[in-house]
Automatic annotation (TrEMBL):
Domain Aminotransferase class V: 3-359
InterPro entries: Aminotrans_V_dom, Aminotrans_V_PyrdxlP_BS, Cysteine_dSase, PyrdxlP-dep_Trfase, PyrdxlP-dep_Trfase_major, PyrdxlP-dep_Trfase_small
Cofactors required: pyridoxal 5'-phosphate
Molecular functions (GO terms): cysteine desulfurase activity; iron-sulfur cluster binding; metal ion binding
Recorded family membership: Belongs to the class-V pyridoxal-phosphate-dependent aminotransferase family. NifS/IscS subfamily.
Catalytic activity: (sulfur carrier)-H + L-cysteine = (sulfur carrier)-SH + L-alanine
Protein name per the record: cysteine desulfurase
EC number in record: 2.8.1.7
Coiled coil: none
Name of the top EC class for this enzyme: transferase
Biological source species: Sphaerisporangium siamense
Protein keywords: Iron, Iron-sulfur, Metal-binding, Pyridoxal phosphate, Transferase
Amino acid sequence: VSYLDYNATAPIRPEAAAAVIEAMQSVGNASSIHQPGRRAAHRVDLARRQLAALLNCSPGEIIFTSGATEANNLALRSTYIPGRPLVTSPVEHPAVLETARMVTVERPEDLVLLPVGSDGLVDLNAVEQVFATRSGGVVSLMRANNETGVLTDLRVVAKAAREVGALVHTDATQIVGRLPVDVAELDVDLLSLSAHKFGGPQGVGALYVRRGTPLPPRSLLVGGEQERGLRAGTLNVAGIVGMGAAADVVRRDLSEEAKRITALRDRLERLLTCALPNCRINGRRDQRLPGVTSITFPGVPADAVLAAMPDVAASEGSACASGAPTPSHVLLAMGLSREDADSTIRFSLGYVTTDAEIEHAAQAVARAVTQVRSALADGSR
Ligand code: PMP
């Protein structure tokens, strides 16, 4: 099987798996003061430093969570202030978009969705327009889109937000471990990530909170005082340790890996556009994550293509949306028709992807698309 669904989840890194197993075999609650507890706390401290090194922040600025969904919820629920704007975009992951809708349900005028172009870029000038008449609040824009890989230049956003006292949050789930992420350079106040997208285990993630950012405790979970009162609940020591180990590995060869994966992605696009000349690549091609491509095969339903190539693991839009009968909200926001959105497949590559897999996948996709297309033509004859 060619596994080309890294944006849904990446294979666990061997170093992370080993760290998880080792941590799981030791008893200890990181909040306990006896020796086993302190040993667990030490493991968590190391992971916090490893993750902080990947993001260029200090370890005390990291709050461990159960993943990016929780980090996004925590970020928005603790920064939105009724009466102040919550600025986001229609191409965000549901963990941001639905949370934003929910917290503003009684004041829908607070929710501002910035316009998105057909290339998937959010219109950043619109941020300045919003802040020409309103101030404070929070801006939440993803650094990299999970369906198209399109990147957002957050520095422009941060500058405009800073001038009016608004906080900036970014969902960086798809970029952490794939391209360098430096919170100081991005100039954001809050950043969400999830371990399983970069080779850590599933069910663990983090929210970076810039020192000095005022977050009220208990805005999401009510309970113990873990994570400075911002995230109650016994720490997932094994998960956190696995995430730390993965962070440590990716930090070492990030740029080399990104180059290799970009070349593989470009090769897949070349092979497919050659074999199927009317397919279309979605999103701004020169401003994307290394390993992602979203391709529309006009008139050919993606679910039929995926079913016709069981040995290629790719996805329709995003994994979170598939299974649901609605077409991708991201592609619709970029102006694709419903039919084109339903005829789009996302391929996402990563650190284990090989040349041979790309070769094989390109052939399988071309065959499957041709087969489905001629079956449809036969059916309508
Ligand atoms: N944000 C983005 C951009 C994502 O791609 C995902 C995972 N699909 C999430 C948030 C949620 O991550 P998790 O399911 O690990 O909580």
